[in-house]
UniProtKB/TrEMBL annotation:
PROSITE patterns: HTH_CROC1. It comes from Arcticibacter svalbardensis MN12-7. Keywords: Coiled coil, DNA-binding. It comes from the Bacteria. Residues 68-98 form a coiled coil. The keyword DNA-binding applies. SMART domains: HTH_XRE. This is HTH cro/C1-type domain-containing protein. GO terms for molecular function: DNA binding. Residues 8-62 form the HTH cro/C1-type domain. InterPro entries: Cro/C1-type_HTH (IPR001387), Lambda_DNA-bd_dom_sf (IPR010982).
């Protein structure tokens, strides 16, 4: 399924419409609408305007509409990266502590000798 098709599907679900509902509103067959959602059929400008109007959006808003799946993936990737960063920061702090301890040992051995 292409990105635009996913956006259209998401908008349809958000409005509580079936594929049949939208197909009737667009005056096309259900299989034709299904092909739009799945990306099998490319959408011409006229159809794009019709779909945008159906959802009370401009064409730009429709094309740039952020779907939840993309946002969730981005958030998930960001959380994973932050977790790894925190783990690396902890490792660095532990290594810094070891360096300080070794320096102190070295300094103590020089004082005693």
């Amino acid at each position: 399924m292409n990105t635009l098709g996913k956006k259209i599907r998401l908008l349809r679900h958000q409005n509580g419409w079936s594929q049949e509902d939208v197909a009737k509103r667009l005056d096309i067959s259900i299989p034709a609408f299904s092909k739009i959602e799945t990306g099998i059929t490319d959408i011409n400008l006229s159809r794009l305007e019709q779909i945008a109007k159906l959802f009370n959006l401009s064409i730009i808003q429709l094309l740039t509409y952020n779907d939840t799946e993309e946002q969730e993936k981005y958030i998930s990737d960001l959380e994973t990266s932050n977790k790894k960063l925190r783990e690396r920061e902890s490792e660095i702090i532990a290594l810094q502590k070891k360096i300080i301890d070794l320096f102190d040992e070295l300094r103590q051995s020089k004082v005693l000798s």
